[in-house]
Write a structure and sequence with these properties.
By secondary structure, the chain is of the alpha/beta class. It has one domain: Deoxyhypusine synthase (Deoxyhypusine Synthase, 3-Layer(aba) Sandwich), CATH 3.40.910.10. It contains 15 helices and eleven strands. The strands form three sheets. The protein has a six-stranded parallel beta sheet with strand order 7-2-1-9-10-11, with helices on both faces. β4 and β5 form a beta hairpin. α10 packs across α15. The longest helix has 18 residues.
Length: about 375
Amino acid sequence: MAKKQSKFLRGRRIDPKPIDRQTKLTDLVDEAFIAYNAARLREACWLFTQKMLEPDVTVGVTLTGALTPAGLGMSALIPLIKAGFIDWIISTGANFYHDTHFGIGLAMHEGNASTSDIVLREEEVVRIYDIFFDYSVLLNTDDFFRRVIEAPEFQKPMSTAEFHYRAGRYVLERERKLGLKNKSLLAAAHEHAVPLYTSSPGDSSIGMNVAAKALQGNKLAFDPSLDVNETAAIVLAAKRGLIRDNRAGKMPARKKSGGKSAIFILGGGSPKNFALQTEPQIQEVLGIDERGHDYFLQITDARPDTGGLSGATPGEAVSWGKVDPDRLPDAVVCYLDSTVALPIITAYALAKHEPRKPRRLYERRQEFMQLLISEYEKSGRR
């Protein structure tokens, strides 16, 4: 009598085709990324492309690490925005600051990480691992932001999304004057009305320049409460099904579970928590009935056993109400450098999925805030 096959042996048999010069990236991912973190990267590509990009899903992306200095704004993030695959972003301020170098025509260069930093300092060259640039790049970018925030439109408290949207217009204008195109994430986000938030706005050269101008009486101030509530409002609107149809003047019927929210985490850190805390803000603090984000995708090199937020698993996030427990089987964590994973996921998604119409969520912030306020008032939480 033949032995009954174990249920654990129902997975696809490992029998990949040989890689040759005709192998496409999509075939490489689907057929050759079989085990270990290659398989997790394949799962990341599948989750992003097959589920997170569905019409009823709103995609938030978080950025940590020096991704824009490495050119990933130009090579990956801007193409994803233009394809309608990113709806809103939370990042370190440094990524937005260094992104601006490219938009105003300043140069970053490939370098050698083993070069003496003492010699580089003498040469007035600044190093981000193996990226080199002249010290004047910092000074010129500082000058750009100081001049921008002198404008009357910046003389008030505002959310970081409003700041980046307004500043992005100046970067876009500079790009056009210099004959540049698709160089700056800030400019692309302004053009497509993608909200850009910074979880710790004082922790970057942009924040440092805002602080310097405050010493001279400048009235610009970042309001973290606006950021907390606006990001929560975006997620609530996504879950209530309000972000499927963004045609002017047309509002879809409100539904309790009419849409889904996806968080795509590159790295970890404060932006990761700021994106995930939107659900505890909705549930725990505001008392609104919700269950957590639907899709969790993280690229990280952080271990969970150290107790740090960057390595915290989606299972742990469930205990906080950050991730819907029913959706946990869809969660993917890929232990890989973002500079490797992001270009591959981007290329895979662009090859496999038709573009989505950009949601232009920045323009709907007040509408979403009204929804948040309305549901908060109904909750009776005080």
